[in-house]
Amino acid sequence: xxxxxxxxxxxxxxxxxxxxxxxxxxxxxxxxxxxxxxxxxxxxxxxxxxxxxxxxxxxxxxxxxxxxxxxxxxxxxxxxxxxxxxxxxxxxxxxxxxxxxxxxxxxxxxxxxxxxxxxxxxxxxxxxxxxxxxxxxxxxxxxxxxxxxxxxxxxxxxxxxxxxxxxxxxxxxxxxxxxxxxxxxxxxxxxxxxxxxxxxxxxxxxxxxxxxxxxxxxxxxxxxxxxxxxxxxxxxxxxxxxxxxxxxxxxxxxxxxxxxxxxxxxxxxxxxxxxxxxxxxxxxxxxxxxxxxxxxxxxxxxxxxxxxxxxxxxxxxxxxxxxxxxxxxxxxxxxxxxxxxxxxxxxxxxxxxxxxxxxxxxxxxxxxxxxxxxxxxxxxxxxxxxxxxxxxxxxxxxxxxxxxxxxxxxxxxxxxxxxxxxxxxxxxxxxxxxxxxxxxxxx
Length: 443
Known about the structure:
- The protein is α+β, with helices and mostly antiparallel strands.
- 28% of the residues lie in helices and 25% in strands.
- The chain folds into 3 domains: 93-296, 3-Layer(aba) Sandwich (Rossmann fold), CATH 3.40.50; 306-383, no CATH class; 386-443, Archaeosine Trna-guanine Transglycosylase, Chain: A, domain 4 (Roll), CATH 2.30.130.60.
- Helix 8 packs parallel to helix 10 (202-221).
- The chain is globular and about 70 Å long.
C-alpha cells in the first residue's frame, strides 16, 4: 500500500477490503491509484450506436451504448451534452439497467432515480414505448431528474417526488420491472468523489443497509407475477450487498435469485449462488457496482387499477400549433389548468404521489394563445418542424440568455448547432427572442 493511498482512505475500510479481496487486494490498490474512468452513453433516441467523431471512444463492455472516453476535457458545455446526444455515466453504472432485460412496451419503475443516468438509459431501451415511472424522494433532486429526462428527449416518463411507501400503495403489482439503485455508503465512488471518502464509517454502512431493506420491501410490492426486480448499489460492503440479498430472499419467498450476466466478479461466500450476482471493482473497468436480479415467481396480488387522469378539452389553438410545428402527433394529450402535456402512454392517475412531470410538458395556454415549452422542442419522438442553425458564437450568446440578431422565418423555431437542437426561440423575422430556460443559462 502506498503512503498516499493509506492516508487518503479510511483504515477500517482498507482492512475490510483486504479481507474481502484477499489475493486481489494489491490489484485493487493499484487500480485506485489510476485516474477514474470517464465514459458516456450515446442516446439511442437521437443517434445509432456508432462512435461519435467528436470524441475518441471505445466500448466499455457494460452496456451496448456505453463508451469510454480518452479525453479529459469537461463535457457539460459540449453541443453533444446540451442537445442530449450523450449522457455522462460511469461505465459500470450501466450494468443494472442491462440486467433488467428491458423489452419494448414494458411498464418500468426506477424507484431511486435521481439524477437520472439509469432512468434515461431505461427510456432509451423502451424507445418511446411502454412507460417509465421514475421517483426521487428529494424534491431538489427530482427537479434535476426532470431536467435530465427532458434534455434526453424522453416523452414517456412520469417523474414523481414521493416516498417508496406511497409508491407501493399506488402501484401494487403494476410493473413488469423495477430497479432499486439504492442510496448506499458509496465505496465504489472513492476514486472520484472526495465527499464519499469523508462520509464513510462503519455506522453509516449499517445505516444504509437498514434503509435499503425498507426500500426493497416497498419495491417488492410493485412487481407483477413473473416480473423482475434488480437491486444495485455502488458500494462493496457485504452488509449492503450479499447480506441484503439473503435478507430479501428469506423475507419474500415468492422471489427467486436469477443470474446477472456481464463483466466483473462473482459475489462473496455470503450467498449460495455467488455467480448469480455481479460485483464490479476498479480493476474490472468501472468504479464500483453491485447488481442482483430477482424474479417474482407467481401469485402476486392483482395489479392496481389505475384510472385515467381527467383533463380539460384540448383547445383549438393547441391542435393548430401542433399541426403546424410538430412533425408527428403525440398519441395522447392532456390539458389541466392551462398546462398542455403530450405522451405515448395513457395519462394515468398516480394517486397521492407528488407529480413533477407527466410525460412531456408541451407548453402553456396564455391569454388565448399557446406558448410551447423547452421539453416540446427537445423531444426525440415527435420532432419540431422548424430549425435555425447558430454559429458557435451565437450559441454562446443564446446560452447566456441573449436575444440574437438572426434573420429567419417568423414564428417559433428550434435552435442549435450542427443540426443538434439546444433550445427554443421565437423570431419576428430579424431577431430571435430567447426562450432557453433560465435555470440552464450561463452566468
